[in-house]
């Protein structure tokens, strides 16, 4: 293939595709001619060991171990109640937050066009030729034109959920007085920078200034029927976990009938589900999506990943709720943790024996459980 591409003058001596090649009066890039001469390169293939004959998860059901869920019934009376978010009055307004964030000149970046460099390389393992590519800025090029002001402002409002009349005065003042009217600063990079900075600042502001007010009614969730006041017989497998372990050893304390064992992540979820817990752990398992529905101050709701009932010799049982997260958390992950921590703190103030823990590894959860067995409190 390499000799053929060289004969057709589609590549240079470094095996890089030429940007412009004319054949039979038609001009294309060398890479475009490659795809025309070798159409099989565009045909997607799937490795045989990657093909699985799985039924859609939405049609599969998981049966609950009702006797174990019943051990959670007293705490679920609280979880199934509806709660209203109550915000604390604050001197800092959205206008002040927007002004403090958007006045940072470091957020405004002019953007250069990028180029994609493509090269034909030989794979030493299988002897085949493959196309390798890398992307980078054009070294000697002008900055790209920015977005139109109205479009940029609209996108920023949509991404941050802030009103246009809050963003416009600050953004216009920066463009006029600091950036000297250079609209090239209204780039996609600038938009991303501002979105992240505003979201982080707003989340940090409201995370400490809200609480939960319980309402006098219950609502059904994915696992609990509030009308019948009982747990469901079965639920969709998809909301428990997208992956399956058919060889898991059954534990009579599990919330579901096993096998199969359903999970989303190997670390730490699968490790937590397959662990042989001390006998003081009477019930444990992964919570399905929308099992509790804790309101988030950014909208929507959240449910912790795991629940444990832990028996203590000289005290009442305690319920541990665990949210697992990666170490490199996103802004949205922090919002979830803030909401759950606030919610369970509110329940504890009502003398409900519930503990909350966030964990990035299975050993951290094991340590928390051992501490609760010994009578320690988070």
From TrEMBL:
The answer on whether this UniProt entry bears the keyword tRNA processing reads: no
Q: Which GO terms describe its molecular function?
A: type III site-specific deoxyribonuclease activity
What does the UniProt keyword field contain? Answer: Hydrolase, Nuclease
Instruction: Quote the EC number.
Output: 3.1.21.5
What region holds the VRR-NUC domain? 274-358
Q: Known InterPro entries for this protein?
A: VRR_NUC
For activity, the cofactor(s) needed are: Mg(2+)
This chain belongs to which protein, by name?
Answer: Type III restriction-modification system protein
Origin organism is Salmonella enterica subsp. enterica serovar Sanjuan
Question: Taxonomy-wise, where does this protein's organism fall, top ranks first?
Answer: Bacteria, Pseudomonadati, Pseudomonadota, Gammaproteobacteria, Enterobacterales
Could you tell me the gene encoding this protein? res_1
